[in-house]
Design brief:
The chain is built from three helices and six strands. It has 134 residues and is an alpha+beta fold. It folds into two domains: 1-81, Double Stranded RNA Binding Domain (2-Layer Sandwich); 82-134, Ubiquitin-like (UB roll) (Roll), CATH 3.10.20. The strands form two sheets. The protein has a three-stranded antiparallel sheet.
């Protein structure tokens, strides 16, 4: 049974990666348990250009497999339910202006994804732009 579960987890992670359009080396699936039969899956993207990680999306589930199914449901339709934002930022102590793109419901959610799991003082945001609908 464990082997089938692991195969299903691997299949779902690959399908999620394919829907997003990034390679598996650019994604981290971080599942955190929150009590009995409850947990949260954080899908984190890694940008090799500027060596930073950002939150793509988080979903809840009864276990990792359930949460992966919920994440797959999300990635199948997220472009229809979110807007595209361009964020220009710089890491503290660096002189390079970076540009990152986020899908989010609003500006605050885009910034939450940028600042996920990091000290808010470690990044300076210069602009957040709602991209035109294509």
């Amino acid at each position: 049974m464990t082997r089938d579960r692991n195969l299903e987890i691997a299949r779902l992670q690959k399908e999620i990666s394919d829907h997003i359009g990034v390679g598996p080396d650019s994604l981290v699936f971080n599942f955190e348990e929150h009590g009995a039969n409850r947990g949260k899956l954080f899908l984190i993207t890694i940008n090799p250009r500027h060596n930073q990680s950002f939150l793509f999306h988080a979903v809840e589930g009864t276990d990792k497999l359930d949460a992966l199914r919920n994440m797959l449901d999300y990635v199948r339709t997220y472009k229809e339910r979110t807007s595209s934002y361009t964020v220009q930022w710089s890491a503290k102590g660096e002189n390079n202006l970076q540009t990152s793109y986020f899908r989010a419901k609003n500006v605050l959610e885009a910034l939450d994804k940028l600042f996920f799991d990091r000290d808010p003082n470690s990044i300076t945001v210069f602009s957040v732009i709602l991209n035109p609908i294509s």
